[in-house]
Write a structure and sequence with these properties.
It holds the Pfam family Thioredoxin. By secondary structure, the protein is an alpha/beta fold. The chain has a single domain, classed as Glutaredoxin. The protein is built from 4 helices and 5 strands. A 5-stranded mixed beta sheet has the order 1-3-2-4-5. Strand 4 and strand 5 form a beta hairpin.
């Protein structure tokens, strides 16, 4: 299942207005490392459905959003919960590390 693609408006709505526990990967279609990470996230998304959201921002189409977080390079996975930034992971991230970060966020903010 493809990740939900966000733009500046939908990003603000999900992160700040809804305060949803989520991760957002900042990526590019032409990034070979991103093409390895995104399928892992798509697979994990099914496991956490209804508990944790997974979204995607194309850093080339949404440069202002990419720059808002002073990101350098892709892929960058940013984590949020209750409208707060909860950390990031960069590059080719192992599935276990992603799940550890998700577990930490869900434990700190149970549904």
């Amino acid at each position: 299942m493809p990740l939900n693609q966000l733009n500046s408006t939908s990003f603000d709505e999900m992160i700040y207005n809804k305060g949803q526990a989520c991760l957002v990967i900042f990526s590019r279609k032409t990034c070979h490392v991103c093409q390895k990470v995104v399928p892992v996230l798509e697979e994990l998304q099914q496991k956490y459905e209804g508990k944790f959201a997974f979204s995607y921002v194309d850093s080339e189409e949404n440069t202002a959003l990419f720059q808002r977080f002073s990101l350098k390079g892709v892929p960058q996975i940013l984590y949020f919960s209750e409208g707060e930034y909860r950390g990031k992971q960069t590059g080719l991230v192992d599935e276990e590390l992603i799940e550890e970060k998700i577990a930490t966020i869900l434990e700190a903010n149970p549904l």
